[in-house]
Specification:
mainly alpha, about 0% strand, about 130 residues
Length: about 130
């Protein structure tokens, strides 16, 4: 009889540990109000930039900052992989980040205004997905 109760206790404890692990993995981290304000203010400043290349570079930095404030470690690429399910348009966000890499590493890269607009919309949508208020 003691063996049965011990087995039931172990199973209940195991189930509880599994539930806690699943909850901690799936819970959405949230930006603090001060972090959200910092991200929003940075985004407003980016929108005042006239140089499209610099605009894309700065938007990428703000996204990296937001993910870092949420506790995602690594490069922005690594952060995007870990936080991927949070984004409503992950592919568009990857394309925006790839555009950033192109303009940052290829001296002659000159993206079209359509590419820049599309990237900026993707960065903004990602920040909304992370909790930046509209």
């Amino acid at each position: 009889m003691i063996l049965v109760w011990s087995s039931i206790g172990v199973l209940i404890l195991l189930a509880l540990v599994i539930c806690i692990l699943v909850w901690s993995i799936t819970k959405k981290r949230k930006l603090s109000s001060s972090a959200e304000r910092k991200i929003r203010e940075s985004w407003l400043l980016i929108n005042q930039i006239n140089d499209p290349v610099r605009k894309v570079l700065e938007a990428d930095k703000v996204l990296d900052l937001a993910l870092g404030l949420l506790g995602y470690p690594g490069s922005l690429g690594e952060k995007l992989k870990k936080a991927g399910p949070r984004f409503s348009d992950l592919q568009g966000l990857w394309n925006a980040h790839k555009l950033r890499n192109t303009v940052a590493h290829e001296m002659q890269a000159q993206p079209s205004l359509q590419e820049v607009d599309r990237a900026m919309r993707s960065f903004e949508r990602a920040l909304w997905d992370l909790g930046m208020k509209k």
